[in-house]
Write a structure and sequence with these properties.
The protein is built from three helices and ten strands; from the N terminus they run H-E-E-E-E-H-E-E-E-E-E-E-H. The protein is α+β, with helices and mostly antiparallel strands and 154 residues long. The strands form three sheets. Strands 1, 4, 6, 7 and 8 form a five-stranded mixed sheet that branches. It has a three-stranded antiparallel sheet with strand order 3-2-10. A two-stranded antiparallel ribbon has the order 5-9.
Length: 154
């Protein structure tokens, strides 16, 4: 069932601190992989919450494979995000304060697919033409990535 879902049985929808990882998967055309999420019908990063005993890097690797069918050849930690700005209430009412380790992956293997339980679609987008409807917690990570990392490397 998963650690967070197990906790939810005890605490209901009350706010939880949810630790996890997101992966900004960039292909050879400098395009970012996003998934169209079922829960909020917004585009979002590949990622998810930590299970007991996992490292943040292990979360990133597992979630990347589960949600995209891809396996990273390398991961680079971009930044750890947290704080009031990462509060989120899911459409079904669960509240979380996210602590997210965001990784960049530019080298990967596998066949692209998506988790039909969590997503409607998956696709690569040019960094300057990202979808307008982004999942709120992911938007802040993307803003950081595009404004800080991509512009600094020009």
């Amino acid at each position: 069932m998963g650690y967070i879902m197990d906790l939810r049985q005890d605490v209901g929808t009350k706010p939880l601190i949810m630790v996890g990882a997101s992966v900004l998967i960039i292909n050879e055309n400098n395009e970012l992989l996003l998934q169209l999420r079922k829960d909020n019908e917004c585009w979002g990063l590949i990622g998810g919450s930590m299970e007991l005993g996992e490292s943040l890097e292990e979360v990133a690797i597992r979630e990347m494979y589960e949600e995209s069918g891809l396996t990273p050849n390398d991961l680079e930690l971009l930044k750890v995000f947290s704080g009031q700005a990462f509060y989120y209430q899911y459409p079904h009412g669960d509240e979380v304060f996210n602590v997210v380790a965001a990784y960049e992956c530019r080298s990967f293997t596998g066949d692209l697919k998506f988790d039909v339980e969590e997503a409607i679609a998956i696709d690569f987008f040019p960094l300057h033409q990202l979808p307008k409807r982004m999942s709120p917690p992911d938007q802040q990570i993307l803003d950081y990535y595009v404004n800080k990392v991509v512009k600094e490397n020009k």
